[in-house]
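Why does residue order matter? Because the sequence determines the fold. Keep that principle in mind as you read this record.
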Amino acid sequence: MRYEMLGPLRVVEGDRCSFVNARKVVILFSVLLIRAEQVVSPEQLMTEIWGEDLPRRATAGLHVYVSQLRKFLQRPGRTDSPVETRAPGYVLHIGDDEIDAHIFPRLVDEGRVLFREGRYEEAAGRFEEALDLWRGPLLGAGGNGQEANGPIIDGFSTWLTETRLACQEMLADCRLHVGLHRETVGTLYALTAENPMRETFYRQLMLALYRSERQADALKVYQAARRTLQEELGLEPGRPLQDLQRAILAGDNRLMTAPLLLSGS
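Structure:
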């Protein structure tokens, strides 16, 4: 069995996918998965579900949601539940089951090691495999357009989102290292649009365009980045982005052979 959190929460068994429809049960399930094999107190769970303004019967409500989750996870031929009541709260046992949110950072770490060893094609394969696990927005603040949750879910969501961005940056670096600059331009345009404050994507896009004989477009990207940063934050682009602009204007030959020379990586 596999628990998938990198998108709408679901449980996958072979070709069968099961979803929890009740949002509060989804939150409960998510917290127990995040803290798998660890005891989570009722107070922590209630904060994630209701925030600081708890309803009068919050404890009773939590018991109902735990019961619903146990029923959802019940499987034929299995009498025990993976959700155990253990003082001072509850713990979810995963046994031999998998959680995609655990597989994802492991693949990213493997790709990072390969990248540092200069094995760029192999590293790219790991990063692509990691990114393929994502199916949609995460549960959490900004993840699904609904109200914010508590610190456990929001902290985990933020960490996964940042890890995903780092993975996307490293994948683009790998592709630039192996000469796939033309093939990477479209993806980098999308990434700059989705993450307008992330200067690394602008640097990578400028370099990919320059190496694709599109010097004018590369300089337009710099101007767009500068305008966005000034309007949103009142800041000039960082030193690496400015250095890259000057190198492009000067026709620095090193840009054709050293993909990360001025990328800040």
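The CA atoms of residues 4 and 100 lie 5 Å apart.
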